[in-house]
Amino acid sequence: xxxxxxxxxxxxxxxxxxxxxxxxITELLNLFKDDARVKDMELVQNAVFERESIMSTGVGKGFAxxxxxxxxxxxxxxxxxxxxxxxxxxxxxxxxxxxxFLLVGxxxxxxxxxxxLSRISRMMNKDEFRDSLLSASTSEDxxxxxxxxxxNYLEIN
Length: 157
Description:
The chain has 6 helices and 6 strands. The protein is α/β, with parallel strands linked by helices. Strand 2 and strand 3 form a beta hairpin. Helix 2 packs antiparallel against helix 3.
């Protein structure tokens, strides 16, 4: 499963306005309010924020990957946001975050969840990928950057 197969332009925000970690996560979660894949939005939000309370998902290099597993969804949901201004995310490297990749998977689908987390982690470690995202100005540009970057990876199932 490729990120570009489950991340669509409608779930990408190229100029997030949030100025805090909680507001940014909520801004991305709000993209799913009317999504048929979500059975219970409140449970999805609770799962993401509960996971975040355990340890920040600010993984470094300007990236955060808030994620959770819950049966309040029918299928994996993902969203991506590029912040207009970097925010404090209590990241491991203590640097502010400019990019947020949200991933919510079903509790019973641990394998695909871990593989997607691994893939996004590998991508965000590439300077060229992050630089491309920084210069992107539209959701379409950001989506195309993911598509192009994934051409460098073997298929994951």
